[in-house]
Design brief:
HIT family, subunit A; binds adenosine monophosphate; alpha+beta; binds zinc ion; 5-stranded antiparallel sheet
Length: 135
């Protein structure tokens, strides 16, 4: 897409810190990293988000995400990794070109990814019914 930020990076119309590239996938450092080595893994094909992704592209993306996770673990000494993937504005998607965040975690880093919610989870049976059609 002409005005897509990541498509511009793929076409080298914008600078980036490239970490890995193959025929289908590009991996760059996030410009506003949450931790050291925070990477973004995205396809060279413009796909908006998970709802629109094809099987082949998704397979390549998740395998690249694993490759980068192992790389970051080995080379940067990350002791854990969070993989985050946002879809639509409500979920925090800012760049409308599907991407996985690879967020390395280090012992002494202050990053908090917390589970804090006002949803009590007291309608699980109803949710199962809605999602599966079963009681
Ligand atoms: P999301 O909120 O999941 O759409 O994430 C978009 C991410 O892209 C954010 O973490 C931004 O910091 C990152 N970002 C925005 N512009 C650039 C850029 N030019 N190069 C690298 N990362 C970027
Ligand atoms: Zn794009």
């Amino acid at each position: 897409m002409d005005d897509c930020l990541f498509c511009k990076i793929i076409r080298s119309e914008l600078p980036s810190h490239k970490i890995y590239e193959d025929e289908k996938v590009l991996v760059i450092l996030d410009i506003n990293p949450w931790t050291r080595g925070h990477c973004l893994v995205f396809p060279k094909k413009h796909i908006r988000n998970i709802f629109e992704a094809d099987t082949n592209t998704l397979s390549h993306l998740i395998l690249a995400a694993q490759k980068i996770s192992l790389l970051v673990k080995e080379k940067l000494g990350a002791e854990g990794i969070n993989i985050l993937q946002n879809n639509n504005r409500l979920a925090g998607q800012i760049v409308d070109h599907i991407h996985f965040h690879i967020i390395p975690r280090y012992k002494d880093n202050s990053l908090q990814i917390s589970h804090s919610t006002d949803y009590q989870g007291n309608d699980l049976k109803e949710v199962v019914k809605l999602l599966t059609g079963n009681r």
